[in-house]
Amino acid sequence: MKQSNMMTIIRKEFARFFGDRSMVFTALIMPGLLIYVIYSLMGNSINEGTFTVASDEAPTVYVENLPPSLGPLFDSLPVTLLAGECNAEEMVALVDDKENHVAYVVFPPSFDSLTACYNAADGLPAPNVEIYYNSASDGSRQAYTLISASLQMYEESLCNRFDVNRADDESVQYDRTDDGEMMASILSKLIPMLLLMLMFSGCMAVAPASIAGEKERGTIATLLVTPMRRSELALGKIISLSCFALLSGISSFLGIILSLPKMLHADEVGMDLNIYGASDFLLLLVVLLSTVLLLISIVANLSALARDVKQASTINIPLSLMMIVVGMLPMMLSSTPDNMALYLIPFYNSVMSMTAVLSHEASMLSIGITTVVNLVYAVCGAWLLTKLISSERVMFSK
To answer: Structural domain tally of the chain?
Structure first.
């Protein structure tokens, strides 16, 4: 009997949901469609240097052959300066790793003498200052911006007697990142916020109408007087709403996959879409599904406290604001925190996990903690919803 009552509630919710075309569009089709449209349009406007965020730590700059005339200038910059002889191969390898937040500057020997004697009329190239950096690293990019701007000002004071990163040899790559790594860095800052907001929209499309809507129409009273346990009613609601929320999460996930070719300009620049593999998409899907289960449990509980759908929407406004703030954290942080205790914080753990997956820094431990924590919180939400439905004061409040 218990299983029969619960299945009756589930079938009722499925019939109500799939019988409403506007609800199906809002909860299932719109999230994936919006992601596809937004990311496709965004792909046409993103260029190198967009969404730059300064690193919290001062970047380290290795300088070889630092001329005495530029010593005070480099000392005034907000960087950690290490001047002296360097091994070029080791320095380039150090810059290649975006986690190091370093830049490598090479001055020609006797730079001051060369610039003092340089005459453009001689037809010889000006002394060239080489700056190796990694644009996928906030700190390295910040160091390059500071140094290149300072050298450009110094160059103007000398009437253009030297160059910075002159492209004499096309094989020399001063920016040590590649297009795929740079795009992955940008996407890891953008996608989490948009995903959270679209998943929240999908949950808001189904939960308030299912719970607060039942109270507003008075049909919840009919269900409560039937020979059915309140736990059966709560489980039926949670299971059906979770199915809708999972479908909404899958829709958002498909929107990401389908929009990536346009986001990365793969057709135009011949970029290899293998910057994300099947394992990356699988980890992202696991995080999405666990997050949407947690989100639907919270929205369902808040909706149970409301008198009608309108009040349920109002009660959930602070939650939507929190989703925006938490989703924007990757744009404000220079790197993903290493403290595993942070993965116990709901939603923030999902944002960190999505950012790590998209920036190729994910670990199975962090993804596992995030998934388990989200599922535990979702189960607690289901238990709390059972208590709320069992409360006549909550269910019959006016």
So the answer is: 2
Other Cβ atoms closer than 10 A to 392 = 11
Confidence of residue 182 (pLDDT cuts 50, 70, 90): low
Residue 386 lies in a domain: yes
The DSSP code for 344 is G
Structural domain contains residue 157 = yes
Alpha helices in the chain (DSSP H): 2-18, 21-24, 30-43, 71-75, 88-96, 111-117, 138-157, 179-210, 212-217, 219-225, 230-263, 266-269, 278-304, 309-315, 317-332, 348-358, 364-390, 392-395
Same domain, 33 and 130: no
Shared domain for 377 and 230, answered yes or no, is: yes
Judge whether 55 lies within some domain.
no
Residues 339 and 373 in one domain: yes
The conformation of residue 346, written as its DSSP 8-state character, comes to T
Position 115 scores a pLDDT of: 85
- Helices 179-210, 2-18: crossing angle, 10 deg rounding: 110
Domain that holds residue 205: 2-49+179-395
Q: How confident is the model at residue 149 (pLDDT cuts 50, 70, 90)?
A: confident
Q: What is the DSSP letter of 229?
A: -
CA atoms of 257 and 262, how far apart (whole Å)? 10
| CA atoms of 300 and 312, how far apart (whole Å) | 9
Cα 90 from chain centroid (whole Å): 32
